[in-house]
Design a protein that fits this description.
Elements lengths: L2 H27 L4 H39 L12 H11 L2 H4 L2 H31 L3 E4 L7 H7 L29 E4 L5 H27 L6 H11 L30 H11 L15 H13 L3 E4 L7 E8 L2 E9 L5 E8 L8
Antiparallel strand pairs: 1-2, 3-4, 4-5, 5-6
Helix pairs in contact: 1-2, 1-5, 2-3, 2-5, 3-5, 6-8, 7-8
Amino acid sequence: MGAVDRLNAAQRAAAGLAKADLQKVWRLYSHLPADKLRDTLFTALPALAQKHGDIMSAAAADWYEETLRESTGQSRRALLSGVNLEAVEKAARWAVDDLYHGDPVDTWRKLEKSLLRHVKNAGRNTVRLNAERDGFSYARVPSGKTTCAFCLMMASRGFSYSSRGAAGETASGFGDRFHDDCDCSVVPHYALSRRERAEFDQRVEDMYGMYEAARKEVRADGFDATDRAIAQRIRDMFPGDIKDGAEVPSILRDLDSGWPEGVKPVPGRKWRHILKRHGPGGDAPSLFPDEMTEYEIAKIVRETMQAPDYTAPHPERPGTTLNYFKTIAGQKYVVGTYLDGDGKLTIATSFPVSGNGGIL
């Protein structure tokens, strides 16, 4: 087992123990009246976070000492980071609101996710604290073959982190954050073998290419290239390569991604219809080219709705169906629309116009 795999295994083990203890607390006390359960959870969550955070921090410190000695021959006593109890208490106050204004099961879910995140963070912060002390750069390393858009964006920086400020804490605040269910680890550069480093460097190059492509798209649309906007565009452009890829691209539903005001966001079933019927390999007479990606098709739909060359009513259904036409790079496209029951303009379909096509 490689060094990173050992660290990930320790992280999973600590999180598993923390979850088991929280389940015991919930089984024992979830029947209590809301006020008493609230007070119990206010006490229990910080205590569990402290207990299992200390376990994770100690495991991460042992891992740091072992990998440092194995890789560099140096022997240094690792510092322990521990848990941010103030943040844990804040999370508990947020979660218990559902005892009064929602479903108590939602309280459990929020408590679980928050507890596991803080326990894992104790290990991450321990590794980072020692790497910074010893002058080693470190990376955010996702676990598994795929990760979410946000973590991809952070991990695409490779071993460029050397301090919490460089990690983004003093800029956008993103580089120093790990979301619920995050499986990333903080790894100093010396911990990877040559083979692991070569594989990770290639992965970083691939991730950075996705990040750069998304950033260029955001800027080309005239929007500020914020981390949030770039992460959303990554979800749009590479849905099959990340864990949280968009079912319907944001450019077909969000005003702040360029979807025109007054047009109903494209629902999943309509987007699936366009791709299945008119996408590459579809069964319609007129298809988008094989080399065209789903994102490129979405851009055509958006651009046609933003600024059509002209519109024309359906010859057999005037007043209910309106076709939008636009020629892009020498090819004419059509987007068919109709008014739904609420009178809102709704997308029905879209495809390239061939011959006398385009009549929906």
